[in-house]
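We emphasize that the prediction below concerns an isolated chain of 119 residues; any contacts that depend on oligomerization or on bound cofactors are therefore not represented. The input was used exactly as deposited, without trimming of termini.
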Amino acid sequence: MQLNEQTIETIKWDERGLIPAIVQDADTGHVLMMAYMNTEALRQTLDTGETVFYSRSKAALWHKGETSGNIQQVRSIYIDCDADTLLILVDPAGPACHTNARSCFYRSLSEFQDNPVRE
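Result of the prediction step, given as a token string:
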């Protein structure tokens, strides 16, 4: 799928040119992760059919699963009513989290409070 420039301009990118992207397992509905996309990440995701995000810490694009093999095959992409958040439904090839957890949302806030160490 190709996005025309008018559609890209209509999306509400933040002041850094980013939009949050929530990634959800298309079969189970389980939320896997949240990352950011810029226009190039969105274009590459649409072109390849696999998720590509923008790393704020590295200031670079990253293809999810490029090194781990845990790619996310895109089934569909939705945009919210305010056009400021994406929902990406995927078929995951493995864990979404760098900790090897299925989802980045693997602990409750109280569990985090008891052990805030980042894994």
